[in-house]
Amino acid sequence: MARKHFENLRGWSATASAICIIAIGLVGLAYDALHRMKLAWIAGAQPEEALIFLVCFICFGVGAERLLTLRNIENNMQTAQKQRSVLAKKTELIAHDVGIIAGQIKRIEALDGLEEIEAAATKLIKDCRENDKIKATSQYGSSDALSPEYFKHLAQHVAEAKKKHGSMDYHVVVASPKGDKPRAEDERVKAFKNANIGERLIIRGVPHPWPFEVLIGGHSMIIALLGGDKEARYEVGIKITDPEFVEKAAEWYGATIWESAKKSEIHH
Questions:
Q1: Which one of 42, 179, 192, 201 counts the least CB within 10 Å of its CB?
Q2: Would you say 213 and 119 are in contact if contact means Cβ atoms under 8 Å apart?
Q3: Interval 123-140: pLDDT, tens
Q4: What ranges make up the beta strands (E) of the chain?
Q5: How many CA atoms lie within 13 A of 68 on its CB side?
Q6: Rounded CA gap, 239 and 124, in Å?
């Protein structure tokens, strides 16, 4: 604040100085003109007319040039101030975005219980972009614990990506020791059919159970551990947000999980 006040005072001082020089020049020119007109009250003066005129003209020219220069500098300073304000706003926005990205990358979140696992899975899907591929494992019994609303949200998000001409789809490998086919009440199948995007749901099966479940999409993945009871409910899990790690996990899914289920593909 003090610095700005000092700069304002300095600017006014320079302006006043220029105005004084111009005033002196004008007074000198007026005097010279009156003297040349031989008015009575200055008739007795014997100045060097040429010298007075020359000095006055120089003062006037210097003062005018200085004033115009100061005005130009003032305009440039105002323009620079506006540009600095715009730059400061852009810097603030960039810092905000960087803060958000930094908060998302390389983060591990512990999930306790089915409710937290489903909430984290819903957010993971919501954060996926239009061309992301969502990959998952499942098995009949444990997957039934996920609410129908979860699968509706999943299908709706894929449908929105399709409307935006995105290539998002949902790959899931279902473990079914009994060789079950996708049932009519399978919430995944129902949700995707109701959203008219059945082609975006690709299901394959394997004839053995999983010790855990995975959901991969965008820059995040979830690993959910199953309980030891007969119902095999989701009990705990972790959400990992790390682009490099998730990229490798997606490669692992494609090369190991998806390819192993290729010969036992389930059509729906």
A1: 179
A2: no
A3: 999 999 999 999 999 876
A4: 107-112, 133-139, 169-175, 201-206, 212-217, 220-226, 234-241
A5: 6
A6: 9
Contact (Cβ atoms closer than 8 angstroms) between residue 132 and residue 218: yes
Number of CB atoms found within 10 A of residue 123's CB: 12
pLDDT in tens, 176-235: 766 555 555 678 888 999 999 999 999 888 887 777 889 999 999 999 987 766 566 778
Rounded distance between C-alpha atoms, residue 87 and residue 89, angstroms: 5
Name residues whose C-beta falls within 8 Å of residue 159's C-beta, 6 or more positions apart in sequence.
195, 196, 197, 200
Encoded amino acid at 103, one letter: G
| Cβ pair 52, 32 in contact under 8 A | yes
Tell me the two tokens of residue 159: 């449908």
| Residue 157 near residue 123, CB atoms below 8 Å | no
> First and final CA of the chain: distance in angstroms?
71
Q: With contact defined as beta carbons under 8 Å apart, do 213 and 224 qualify?
A: yes
pTM over the 0.70 mark:
no
* Separation of alpha carbons 268 and 209, rounded Å: 20
